[in-house]
Amino acid sequence: MLDIQSMISAKRVTCVVTCKKSLEDYSSPWKTILYKLLLPVGGRFVLHCNFQTSKLKINLLAYYKECFDAWSELNEKNPSCYKEISNGIIWNNKFLCYGKKSMYRRDIVNLGFMKIEDLISANNSSYNISSLINPNKFFPYEHY
User: Fold this and answer.
1) Strand-pair category, 97-98 with 101-102
2) pLDDT, tens digit, for every residue of 78-91?
3) Which residue, 26, 39, 99, 137, has fewest beta-carbon neighbours within 10 Å?
């Protein structure tokens, strides 16, 4: 008889493989569906982020939720020094939340703000991001 823990581990490996395959550069119907679900959090870009599935602003099908939970656990980062923190991706970051949800803004990504270090100028002072975008639209008030 199979051990329950072994069955769970095997399923998690399958989930991680699914996430890895979604990053590969070929098209497939299952990827199209997944990418459509992931569009509000940057598409497959989310798999490069330090996310927690429950904090993403999307609703995933049960199988994909299990896959993303396994992936996020495997790729979890807990930065402990300035360099690790400044090198962290801002978007879909489980540590940077608004209304208990992580954030993703394509328009701000397109301005070149991907990592925390992108918000810090060469002389270690913070950029005035409000000069680049309308601050009232940066964090729209939403209730969760």
Assistant:
1) antiparallel
2) 888 888 888 999 99
3) 26
Residue of higher predicted confidence among 69 and 122: 69
- Residue 71: C-alpha distances to residues 56, 67, 83 (Å): 14, 6, 24
Residue bearing tokens 């199209």: 32
- Tens of pLDDT, residue by residue over 94-131, are 999 988 999 999 999 998 899 988 887 666 555 555 55
**Nearest by Cα to 109 from 36, 41, 22:** 41
> Rounded distance, CA 118 to CA 57, Å?
23
CB under 8 A, 24+ apart: contacts of 74-81: 74/16, 75/47, 75/50, 76/50, 77/50
CA 133 – CA 61 distance, rounded (Å): 34
